[in-house]
Structure formats: C-alpha cells, structure tokens
Known about the structure:
Elements: E1 32-36, E2 40-43, H1 44-57, E3 63-66, E4 72-76, E5 89-97, E6 102-107, H2 111-122, E7 129-133
Antiparallel strand pairs: 1-6, 1-7, 2-5, 3-6, 4-5
Amino acid sequence: MLQPTRSKFRKAHKGRIHGNASRANFINYGAYALKAMSPDRVIGKQIEAARVALTRHMKRQGRVWTRIFPNIPVSKKPVEVRMGKGKGSPEFWACRVKPGRILFEIDGVSEQLAKEALYKASAKLPIKTKFIRRIS
Length: 136
C-alpha cells in the first residue's frame, strides 16, 4: 500500500478541493494517459488497485507511470464513540485530486490496448476520468 516514509505532521485538516489542477496537467512521460475530470480524494488502496488492473490488462508489456501519491493522512474515530475527546487516529493515506490532473501515463502499447487498460483502471477510482493521448 502506498504511503510516505516520513511526514512532518501526524494528522491533517480535511481541507477542500477547489479549482483546476495547475501541476501535473500535461502528459510528460507516456503516449496515453488517464486524466481526472472531477475533484475528490483518492485513497492509496484505490491507486494500487487501479495500477494492478492496468498492468494486468497490459500483460506487463509497456511502461506505466503513476503521477499521484497519497501524502495526506486521513483520521477516523472508532465506531460508536461519543462526540468530543479529540481527533481520531490516522487510518489511511489519500491524495487530493483536482480536475485536470494526470493520474496514470502509459507507453509502449497500442492505442486500443491502452484505452482498454485505462478504462479498467478508471473503474477502480472514485472520480470521473478521461482517456487522452499525447499531441505531437
């Protein structure tokens, strides 16, 4: 599961995700990519599930780049606990994704295979996505 080795703070504020992505919004590495179209938090397990679906469909040929990383700790309180008594303990790691952000990039496979693989990966993610190709 993806998570940072060290973090400056143990707990983080929830925050809001507004605006469009200003970074990682162009294809840098591969020929095809999966682009986020709606804002949401993507959990580390979801990123890993999408990556596994992607590589399995490609039968481990070509190259995959993951352009997102879960760096925000998300805390939760146990079930059936009364209000108050402080913030809960960190449960999992998430990444705040803005619309326009590139999530995955792939190269070394045909466009048809890339489209199918990225479609399968998008099914594992909680956001609307779009298949895009590099303009050359």
